[in-house]
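Working notes for the structural subgroup meeting. M.R. asked for a predicted model of this chain before we commit to crystallization trials. I am recording the input and output together here so anyone reviewing the notebook later can reproduce the run.

Input as submitted:
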Amino acid sequence: MRYVSPTAKIAADANIGYFTVIGDGACIGNNVTIGNNVTIYPGSIIGDNVYIESNAVIGRLPRPAKTSTVKITGDLPPVKVGAGSIIGCGAVLYAGTEVGSSCLIGDRTLVREYCLIGDNVVIGSGSIVENCVTIAKNTKIQSGAYITTYTTIGENCFIAPMVTTLNDNFMGRTEERFKHIKGADIKKGARVGGGSILLPGIKVAEESFIAAGAVVTRDTLPARVYKGVPAKEFRIVPEKELLKEEDS
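Returned structure, recorded in token form:
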């Protein structure tokens, strides 16, 4: 048993599981597989060869608190999921977000509104990507990472498990904070080790290597290793570890 809106456009070879709801005007591409108990909100656009696991929610509308940092003004565009992507069990994608092709969004992962995710991105299970985040192509974010609002992550980055990014030096106090809220700016090829913390507005330079457990309180230099609390420059990243042109 399922509900599919008569105005939804669904390819003939789509495979839809039990107890799934597909809303008005949703567009489901060729060779799409949708598991059981999935909710696809009105207007959502699902590309060809996408696999959506059971209990996922696609295109949810945000209902922010009055004190939320990001305010919603007007209607959000529908969520878009690119061709060949996989959406894991229990994952939630909000409206206004675009997922590129051949991405993997892990089980129980949350991706909020206004996010732009490039092609071939992996976001591991249980991760949280808050609103207004940009993640460029070929980046890997491992399980349990927290990517805060207004974070930017470049191409070919590696974000290890349980990394935390922060965006508010005022920690919720005073109206002044709204002028300064900014997540990390993580440049192309940077690697951030497990359990490390990036303070608000930090710039992690290209090819920087942040060791596990480090607390980054200042901008880093390109192709340098940082470790410790607070993180300090330790050595140069070995040449053999740097990205080649063909990796771009």
